[in-house]
Amino acid sequence: MGNFLIGIGTLLFLVGIAWKWGLLSWFGHLPGDFRYEGEHFVFFAPLGSMLLISLVLSLLLWLFNR
């Protein structure tokens, strides 16, 4: 359990650094990411970005579990 928590912490740290340096600026701007802005309402659904992240994570987990 300890190694798992250390891995998750390291991953969150790296994602935070990438976010701060602007390496994740593509998130939310892919085809399939929906944004609707009304007068008093904003709806944002990053479906394309989440699909890409899911695909990458699934591939990584499959490779590590082989």
Detail the topology: elements first, then pairings.
Elements (H helix, E strand, L loop, with lengths): L1 H19 L12 E5 L4 E5 H18 L2
Antiparallel strand pairs: 1-2
Indicate the radius of gyration in whole angstroms: 16 Å
Mean pLDDT: 89
What is the 3D form?
elongated
What gap, in angstroms, lies between the N and C termini? 20 Å
Structural class: alpha+beta
Q: What is the N-to-C order of secondary-structure elements (H for helix, E for strand)?
A: HEEH
Please provide a written account of the structure:
The protein has 66 residues and is α+β, with helices and mostly antiparallel strands. It has a domain at 24-66. 56% of the residues lie in helices and 15% in strands. It has two helices and two strands. It has helices at residues 2-20, 47-64, and strands at residues 33-37, 42-46. It has a two-stranded antiparallel sheet with strand order 1-2. It is elongated. 0% of the residues are buried. The model has no long low-confidence stretch (mean pLDDT 89).
Keywords, please?
single chain, 66 residues, alpha+beta
Summarize the structure.
The protein is α+β, with helices and mostly antiparallel strands and 66 residues long.
